[in-house]
Amino acid sequence: MGYGLVSAWARACRLAASWAVGGVTAVLLCGLCGACSRRSSPPVKAPSGPEPVSVVATVAGEPISVDEFRDALERYGRQRGRLLATPAERRELLEYLIREQAVAHRAKAAGYDRDPELVAEFERLVSNKYREDRMRALGANIEVNDDEVRRCYDEHRGEYTIPERVRVALLFFPIAVAAGATGRDEALATATKARGDAVALALDVRGFGPLAQQYAADPARRHVGGDIGWLQRGATPGRWPAAVQEAAFALQAPGDVSALVPTEDGFYLIRLIAREPEQQRSLDVVKNNIRYDLLHKKRNQVREAFEAEVRAGLDIQINEPVLKSVAPLAGKDEGAVRALPALPDSGAAKPASGTDAERPR
Asked: What is the tens place of the pLDDT at every residue in 154-203?
């Protein structure tokens, strides 16, 4: 068994500690990991004569070889940041290996190596290790050069623009339902007067200025002149009716006041605070996003190639009637069911859209 697979078994040891099977089982699994990772051939029986020079110790006839012991010395030395050079340290390490192999021997004798959950865990580790190694090999030469980035930018230039946007102040004059048939006429009269006052405002007054104190229906906007922030061209209308957005973008210069915008619930009045045209983000600004996007797509292609490769030549049949009939067992303890691995992301990352933070100043 290779060193990578040994590392995978080490992960199984750590997983064991989190299983709801008790600390003893976790130790036994660690022992199993150690015993299984030390050999890929059947156990070697204890020799009848003197121990071979290639064997440091045996446990129930199963050897701890010189190579295994030396490998353990190096690993634990790296963990401690120094070589385990003294006889006492080597003895301590050997006793640890003996203890773990003894636990593994007892665990195997008790049938733990045939436990379905442990066997399934080992198979997942083996599969994951193969997947990692194979996909690493398939994707070893993946890179995105500057020409690819430039070509993607040129072909999708429209995706790297910040749409036109306007910042406006807004007043709303609701129709009082309790007023009956006269409610709409009263709201219209109030809105008409407010518009006349708004047109007379000085250009340096932000939004509706003092008129917001008098007319704003939203208390939060009375002290900011009715400012509702930025509206972006093409964005979902959201809180404001489409007619309001259309009227807002029709305003050309700061200080311009819209005509009254009628709706079923009342009338809107809009004053332009600022306007910014559509802007093209430069290649320098978006090149890292594009590079990441292209790398993501290439990695997805590697994953797809791997999945096609592992299925090639295998007789795979799905029993559709049985698949449709399978349902979760009633009363299954959800807390005891470990989560399945997340499905791989099937979509490529999209370039970041234009935001206030990205807008050139």
From this structure: 999 989 998 999 999 999 999 988 777 788 999 999 999 999 999 999 99
CB under 8 Å to 211, separation ≥6 — which residues? 171, 194, 197, 198, 201, 226
CA-angle at 245, arms to 254 and 180, nearest 5°? 110
CATH ID of 164-277, from 3.40.50.150, 3.10.50.40, 3.40.50.1110, 3.50.50.60: 3.10.50.40
0.85 surpassed by pTM: no
Entry field: residues in the chain: 361
Domain ranges of the chain: 3-135, 139-160+281-306+346-361, 164-277
pLDDT in tens, 96-127: 999 999 999 999 999 999 999 999 999 999 99
The two three-digit tokens of residue 321, written as one number: 């009637």
- At position 221, the amino acid (one-letter code) is R
